[in-house]
Write a structure and sequence with these properties.
This protein is an alpha+beta fold. It has 11 helices and 17 strands. It has 2 domains: about 10-230, 3-Layer(aba) Sandwich (Rossmann fold); about 235-300, 2-Layer Sandwich (Alpha-Beta Plaits), CATH 3.30.70.100.
């Protein structure tokens, strides 16, 4: 019986994973192949099946159909063998408010079998690594959201798990603390820890090595975030007008427009998937707005982003991404100043764009 990733580096592998609750199918025939050291994200609206899927991978919920192998164990049959090898951080803070920071860590270490000197060493190491030394005697209720998050992550990793599950871990946390949190995640990834995270934040999702975007319990599309965004290349237009509210209302009536939303001082327009390309459609958009007295109007092609992919899937589009493995650098920290995003994805240069004016 293997207790390690397979020879090809797969830590999690599922085939046809399905879970039903009565007549409701919460997770529907999901296939996964997740490699050691990956930060793998699940992105989808509420009710898409993300939490149910994570609970099955952890062995907390029995699948209705399909096969699951995690760290070499058959789940749920060997779920008990998995307990000491995984960490879990819930969406809502779940530690004890009446215990101090140090006492919470001591309790977590005891649960995972830590004893004596080794247990105390783990607690001290966790306090140091998560910058909690000066707060060791504080109770969680007196900590800000960011510090409570650090404590929760410290407790989830105090036993040095091989696999870490994070269920919307940064909800309600400010951007600075979210960024620090993700830096810590990539430290763990660089040490070979595999991390599964569900999130609603697009700026977090793009940090993952790979994403599984879910819709109605199914895996709608999977791949590196920037590769997913490129599926919509040529279908996004940025519009500048002095009358954004009126312009959005007009744009949404056009048959070539799938969605339109304001982003800052400009309008972000996603075209329908039936062959419309930004360069060809821009004059029509400008003319339509100008005809309604909303000029002057400027329009230019824009790079698609992950939110565009999310919107396209929500509207029922079927997107197909070429199968791709983990991004370059998985399991290794990204060097500072390398010109890459977390996850080893190069930042593409934005080419000069043609601007159409009315």
């Amino acid at each position: 019986m293997s207790e390690a990733p397979s020879q090809d580096g797969a830590v999690i592998r599922t085939q046809g994973l399905t879970r039903r609750f009565g007549t409701l199918t919460a997770v529907d025939s999901v296939d996964l192949d997740i490699r050691q050291g990956e930060v793998y994200g699940f992105l989808g609206p509420n009710g898409a099946g993300k939490t149910t899927l994570i609970r099955m991978l952890m062995g907390l919920l029995t699948p209705s159909e399909g096969q699951v192998q995690v760290l070499g164990f058959e789940i749920p049959r060997q779920a008990e063998n998995l307990r000491s090898k995984v960490g879990y951080m819930a969406q809502h803070f779940s530690l004890y408010e009446d215990l101090s920071v140090e006492e919470n860590l001591d309790f977590a270490a005891e649960i995972f079998g830590g004893e004596g000197r080794r247990r105390q060493e783990r607690i001290e190491q966790a306090l140091q690594e998560h910058h909690l030394v000066d707060r060791r005697q504080q109770r969680p209720a007196t900590l800000s959201g960011g510090w409570r998050q650090r404590l929760a992550l410290a407790a989830a990793t105090i036993h040095a798990p091989e696999l870490l599950f994070l269920d919307e871990p940064t909800a309600g946390v400010d951007p600075a603390n979210r960024r620090a949190f993700w830096e810590k995640l990539f430290e763990l990834s660089g040490e070979g820890v595999t991390i599964l995270v569900s999130t609603h934040y697009m700026d977090e999702a793009i940090r993952c090595h790979r994403l599984c975007m879910m819709r109605q319990g199914r895996k709608a599309v999977e791949g590196a975030p920037r590769r997913l965004a490129r599926l919509l290349q040529g279908r996004v237009i940025e519009v500048q007008t002095r009358h954004p509210d009126e312009a959005i209302a007009v744009l949404r009536t056009l048959p070539c427009v799938s969605s339109a939303a304001q982003m800052g001082s400009s309008l972000h327009v996603l075209l329908t998937p039936d062959g419309h390309q930004a360069e060809m459609v821009m004059p029509d958009l400008v003319d339509a707005l100008d005809a309604q007295g909303l000029g002057p109007v400027e329009a230019e092609p824009a790079d698609p982003n992950l939110e565009d992919v999310f919107v396209a899937l929500t509207l029922g589009e079927e997107l197909q991404a070429a199968a791709d493995g983990p991004a370059e650098g998985v399991g290794r920290p990204t060097p500072k100043g390398s010109g890459k995003l977390a996850g080893g994805q190069a930042v593409p240069a934005r080419p000069p764009e043609q601007i159409h004016k009315a």
